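Internal QA ticket QA-208
Title: Verify multi-chain structure generation after dependency bump
Assignee: T.L.

Test input:
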Amino acid sequence: EPEVTQTPSHQVTQMGQEVILRCVPISNHLYFYWYRQILGQKVEFLVSFYNNEISEKSEIFDDQFSVERPDGSNFTLKIRSTKLEDSAMYFCASSRDNQPQHFGDGTRLSIL
Amino acid sequence: DAKTTQPPSMDCAEGRAANLPCNHSTISGNEYVYWYRQIHSQGPQYIIHGLKNNETNEMASLIITEDRKSSTLILPHATLRDTAVYYCIVRGTNFGNEKLTFGTGTRLTIIP
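Actual output:
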């Protein structure tokens, strides 16, 4: 069964550094999402992306965040200058129209 | 905020049916009920969804009350691998872009 894959599984970065999290959505999916989960807290929506533009973003998704689909297969989340509070699991998801979202197993981001 | 209410935790004996309730008293006529689960810190896994009719797939059954104000997810023969946090989510019909709003879910523990 096709699945969403995310790399790396764990990323350790110094505060203030840029980080890029990568996702390969399911191949025939058109809608892409990022969510995050701070340890012990709820899964929170960050951003949705369709047709090469952001469809919706949450308050969390400020100017430090950006998303890109640089080619036909990858979907990336960039945090420009990381803060301690960015430490979390980041989940990518994708879906077809009128179909459920399917999630990857996440990237654990640790900011030192 | 999540539009659903779930018990924080439940136990179920291995081999028995696990029945997970969810209240969604403010659900609108065109909103679907979705169920996801999260095993340990893995990505949320889609289980099942429905509008008003009962639904069944290879993983579970979903029973929605006639007034649609509540639903029950049924895992017919629970195994230890079903230990997870289960999320009941109400989502509109704009499947393509609409985010998922996660609550705190029900932590289901399957007891040997």
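Spot checks passed. The mean pLDDT of chain B is 93.
Status: verified.
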